[in-house]
Design brief:
Helix content: 40-55%
Subcellular location: Cell envelope
Largest sheet: 6 strands, mixed
Number of helices: 14
CATH superfamily of the largest domain: Bacterial extracellular solute-binding protein, family 7
Strand order of the largest sheet: 7-6-8-5-9-11
Number of domains: 2
Pfam families: DctP (PF03480)
InterPro entries: DctP_fam, TAT_signal, TRAP_DctP, TRAP_DctP_sf
Family: Belongs to the bacterial solute-binding protein 7 family.
Oligomer: single chain
Organism: Methylobacterium tarhaniae
């Protein structure tokens, strides 16, 4: 359920806050009413931290900035929400880097398989520097304002049919992936049969064996409760994915400066809280999932990366992203591929 009633866009309301309030703002006592879509479930830390941020924005502006969050794909699939955002039908969205790749290809580059060794180089790459600048510029070209990236974790494989301990165990496996060319390419290169299914429909797809398994982070596996209909969890950590907080550029630019400052500050604080909560949730997640009956293994990841090299995965994506962007990525990851 949304946190409040459905609202209409009002970026042109001329809102100013506190001592900066003008006659124009006072003439529009209802202030700014905006909406935000998200694919994340209610229990995901991205949802809980954003709800806190939106409540703080509402309180600090004395109700004059009212942003309603619609989580759990209530406004449609990620691709649908991206389309709504670009048209200005909604003002904000939270959307995965992997699905954004279908719009702005460079947005998917942090998800290159086995690229980042951990969070230190990852956040260095995405919180500033040449790689982050290139991604933000790519999104800006589509009229989107990008804030900081919410963590959605290093991704593992969960299945109901068989353990995944070696590359051969993936052969022919029907595995759910988001609408990401990079993840689709990754699993095809490993011999699986990736299929795109909306996140909100994944539980039913796994329960009815439309798919044999899915790949996602531990907190996402917990939040979607797919462990109830799956049996085996393989800690492959094959790719990282994050969620960009995005705004419709013209709606954002039409807000007064103090309103933008207030929203940006609370979004930034929400990202910090979310990343911390996600790490805590992830570190304790394996024990919780094991207690729920999942059989958990941690395969040697080197053969998976070697199989991708042999399949030409890294060479393909270097060519598709371009040598300049690939070089920006390798500043933080070291050499990728042969």
């Amino acid at each position: 359920m949304p946190t409040r009633r459905t609202i209409v866009q009002g970026a042109g309301a001329g809102l100013l806050l506190g001592p900066l309030a003008s006659r124009r703002a006072r003439a529009a006592p209802d202030g700014v009413r905006l909406s935000m879509g998200s694919p994340m479930p209610q229990a995901h830390p991205a949802t809980t931290c954003l709800v806190e941020a939106l409540d703080a924005i509402r309180a600090e502006s004395q109700g004059r900035i009212d942003i309603t969050l619609y989580p759990d794909s209530q406004l449609g699939s990620e691709l649908s929400m991206q389309s709504q955002l670009r048209s200005g039908a909604i003002a904000f969205t939270l959307t995965s880097a992997s699905s954004l790749q279908t719009l702005a290809p460079l947005a998917g580059i942090p998800g290159v398989a086995y690229a980042f060794s951990g969070y230190v180089p990852l956040w260095a790459a995405l919180d500033g520097g040449p790689l982050s600048e290139r991604i933000r510029d790519a999104l800006k070209a589509f009229g989107l304002k990008a804030f900081r990236v919410v963590d959605n974790g290093f991704r593992d494989v969960i299945t109901g049919t068989r353990r995944v301990e070696t590359v051969s165990d993936l052969q022919g496996l029907k595995i759910r992936v988001p609408p990401s060319p990079l993840l689709t390419s990754l699993f095809k290169a490993l011999g699986a049969s990736p299929t795109t299914i909306n996140l909100a429909e994944t539980y039913a797809a796994l329960q009815t064996r439309v798919a044999d398994g899915m790949e996602n982070s531990l907190p996402q596996i917990e939040a979607t409760r797919v462990y109830e209909v799956q049996k085996y969890l393989s800690r492959t950590s094959h790719s990282w994915d994050g969620l960009w907080i995005l705004a419709h550029g013209r709606t954002w630019d039409a807000l007064p400066g103090d309103a933008r400052d207030l929203i940006a500050r609370h979004f930034d604080n929400a990202v910090e809280r979310q990343r911390h909560a996600f790490v805590q949730m992830n570190s304790a997640g394996e024990a919780r999932l094991r207690a729920k009956g999942l059989v958990i293994t941690t395969p040697d990841r080197a053969p998976f990366r070697a199989a991708l090299e042999r399949a030409g995965y890294y060479a393909e994506w270097k060519a598709r992203f371009g040598a300049e962007a690939w070089g920006a990525l390798e500043r933080y990851t070291g050499p990728l591929g042969a």
